[in-house]
């Protein structure tokens, strides 16, 4: 009985102890929550920072703009010729300047072909000419005598027979004399053709004859080019071709400057238009103008060497009141971004009459003073706020 009471008492003690422990835990937990609430740290709310992209701009101004056209070409001789032997024979003499790279003067004898046989032929032709002319004079005298005889016979009323007056004989003598004169002239020309002369002041591109060689008629003995008359053929796109300044006759009037590099030095020559090719090249859809190079006084190279590659700058038409902007400011579809007074952006559709590698000339869509954005924005929208980084003068 006592044991039973002891067990019940222990159970009750454990129950009371468990209750007290749970109550203590609850009280401690509540106190901890109260302390946390009282001592909580209030987080400061940071202001949201707006991301405003910085942009580079250029302020545009209206002005008259002289179009400049750039192209390239190769210096060529305005006159070139190939000299061929008109008569055959052995070469007796050549000019000291008759060699590749030589310079010859107009009328200079380049090649002398042996003229002996041709002089002999000329002498024989002169004899035949003299004989034919003598025979013609004799026949004329016979004709006069025949007329006198016919009149003395009193036969003037009868039909006149041409043979009686020796008319066929006279015609034959005249033809023979004319033939002899032409034969003598040809023989004389053959003698002159034994000398091959320079037709103009020229440089020798090739020389194909030497003393002792035998040449046949038609053999090409030299190729010459006029070193003092130089031209450059300049190809132009059809757009550039349309911007050339022309006079009433269609000739290009703008200043033309040629630049070529020889060694470490760059040389400059002026040029004038020689002619405008009236036909468009079908392969390249380009037009060509040919310019004549003018001598440059005081230069180590008054004229550029034939074959030199040169860059050309041509002054074209003047566009009135256009705005010039860097080409990198253009968006697809000939649009540009401008910064308004409140530093927000707007889009402008542009009219561009002239576009070069570096710049664009705008005739519509921009006003003087507009600030054009040069920076590429990733996703620009109308009204986006921007910050101007710097202005390009």
Textual characterization of the structure:
With about 400 residues, the chain is α+β, with helices and mostly antiparallel strands. The protein folds into four domains: about 80 residues, conserved putative lor/sdh protein from methanococcus maripaludis s2 fold (Beta Barrel); about 100 residues, Elongation Factor Tu (Ef-tu), domain 3, CATH 2.40.30.170; about 60 residues, RNA polymerase II/Efflux pump adaptor protein, barrel-sandwich hybrid domain (OB fold (Dihydrolipoamide Acetyltransferase, E2P), Beta Barrel), CATH 2.40.50; about 80 residues. The chain has four helices and 21 strands. The strands form four sheets. It has a six-stranded antiparallel beta barrel. A hairpin with a 2-residue loop joins strand 12 and strand 13. The longest helix is centred in the N-terminal third of the chain and has 37 residues. The chain is rod-shaped, with a radius of gyration of 52 Å. The termini are far apart. The mean pLDDT is about 85.
């Amino acid at each position: 009985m006592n044991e039973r009471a002891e067990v019940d008492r222990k159970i009750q003690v454990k129950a009371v102890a468990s209750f007290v422990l749970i109550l203590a835990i609850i009280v401690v937990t509540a106190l901890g929550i109260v302390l946390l609430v009282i001592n909580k740290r209030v987080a400061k709310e940071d202001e949201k920072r707006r991301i405003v992209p910085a942009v580079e701009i250029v302020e545009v101004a209206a002005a008259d703009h002289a179009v400049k056209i750039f192209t390239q070409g190769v210096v060529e001789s305005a006159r070139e010729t190939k000299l061929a032997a008109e008569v055959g024979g052995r070469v007796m003499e050549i000019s000291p300047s008759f060699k590749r790279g030589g310079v010859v003067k107009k009328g200079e004898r380049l090649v002398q072909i042996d003229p002996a046989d041709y002089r002999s032929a000329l002498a024989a032709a002169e004899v035949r000419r003299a004989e034919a002319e003598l025979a013609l004079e004799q026949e004329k005298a016979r004709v006069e005598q025949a007329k006198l005889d016919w009149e003395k016979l009193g036969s003037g009323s009868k039909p006149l027979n041409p043979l009686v007056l020796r008319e066929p004989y006279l015609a034959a003598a005249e033809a023979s004399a004319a033939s002899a004169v032409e034969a003598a002239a040809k023989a004389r020309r053959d003698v002159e053709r034994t000398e091959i002369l320079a037709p103009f002041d020229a440089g020798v591109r090739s020389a194909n004859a030497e003393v002792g060689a035998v040449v046949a008629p038609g053999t090409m003995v030299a190729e010459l080019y006029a070193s003092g008359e130089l031209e450059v053929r300049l190809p132009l796109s059809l757009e550039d071709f349309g911007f050339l300044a022309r006079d009433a006759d269609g000739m290009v009037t703008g200043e033309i400057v040629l630049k070529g590099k020889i060694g470490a030095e760059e040389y400059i020559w002026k040029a004038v238009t020689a002619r405008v090719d009236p036909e468009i090249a079908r392969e390249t859809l380009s037009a060509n103008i040919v310019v004549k190079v003018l001598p440059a006084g005081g230069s180590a190279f008054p004229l550029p060497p034939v074959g030199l590659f040169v860059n050309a700058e041509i002054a074209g038409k003047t566009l009135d009141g256009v705005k010039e902007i860097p080409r990198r400011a253009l968006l697809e579809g000939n649009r540009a971004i401008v910064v308004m007074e409140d530093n927000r952006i707007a889009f402008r559709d542009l009219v561009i009459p002239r576009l070069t590698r570096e710049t664009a000339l705008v005739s519509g869509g921009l006003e003087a003073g507009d600030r054009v954005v040069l920076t590429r924005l990733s996703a620009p929208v109308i009204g986006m706020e921007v910050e101007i980084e710097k202005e390009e003068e």
